[in-house]
Amino acid sequence: MSSPVQSTIHLSPPNPTTTTNPTQPAYILYFITGNPGLIEYYRIFLTHLYGLLFQESPSANSHIFGRSLSGFETTPPSPSPKPEPTPPFGLRDQIMHSEAVLEALVTQVQKDSGARDIRVILIGHSVGAYILLEVLRRQREKSNGVRIIGGICLFPTITHIAKSPSGRKSSWLLNLHPFARTAAIAARILTYPLPLPLLTPFLTKLLSFPRPAARITAAFIKSPHGVHQALHMARDEMLQITEDAWSDEVWGAAHPSGHEHARPVLRFLFAERDHWVADETRDELVRGRGRVVDGLLDGREEEGEVEEWKPLMEIDEDEGWPHGFCIRHSVPVAERVFGYVQHIIEIDSARE
């Protein structure tokens, strides 16, 4: 029997109160999914990343946490004594929910481990990178916000998603008001005769997915609100993810910010070809906001001109990792992200 599709993943020390020093920083890697927002797609990625962290520092108080975005739960919610908002949820809802869960998680880790110094690295995939930057912006505006020391944006869709190859093909359809609900009803009718044990092998062959990814996709299709939620949110993405929306407080600047905590270190990983990110959109962002690995920009050496405070942006020209890396490339991407995490912690430690 296959394991159930969970809505949260929390990887942490077996007994942090006895294996960690409360005077040392505790680190939370808080992962935000893409769309469709099922955290189970990323289990191999997160588990391998945690294994690398534990191998590097077995006694560290390190946590990895991720949750399915709201509305993507594969089982009906438990009855609540008070009325709760119901799916579908928009992009702004997802930002607020992600921020609220992060704040609650920091409080819980402090309580459980006794650590007084909690430092957070946000990791976001696809639209999760957009949510990441918005959560970061909101936390920097709070006087007692969570201490976020870094952000890692994987195959990010943070500007002009409608200009991407897939955005151009789908935006007109998503903008048809009844489309999301109609497609959800059609998916339910078409898959109704197939229980999960039969739908999974069918999707394995149809999509050429590994069986674990096909099982999660089957659970997504059969979930109470998943298909409607995904399409509703995709429409919001087309309408809201347009111009660069963030100030120097997020992107960084040469001068100090005056905030009690230093600006977070940002790392970006782009695919060489990404059907959800237009090449021109990516290149414009790199030119305007970032610096690139080894000081190369547009093939020109920028030695002496690189502004070290700018986010480091990397375009994968060697591995060929796709936008949906979590289907088949979780392990190598986790290894790359582990290097980013080490880099962020090293910079943060040097600031002490």
TrEMBL record:
Transmembrane segments: none
Record InterPro entries: AB_hydrolase_fold, LDAH
Disordered: annotated segments: 68-88
GO BP annotations, alphabetical order: lipid storage
Principal location: other
GO molecular function terms attached to this record: lipase activity
A GO CC term attached to the entry: lipid droplet
Organism of provenance: Lentithecium fluviatile CBS 122367
UniProt subcellular location: Lipid droplet
Ranges annotated as biased composition (Pro residues): 76-88
Family listed: Belongs to the AB hydrolase superfamily. LDAH family.
Name the UniProt record assigns to this protein: Uncharacterized protein
UniProt keyword annotation of Hydrolase present: yes
Keywords: Hydrolase, Lipid droplet
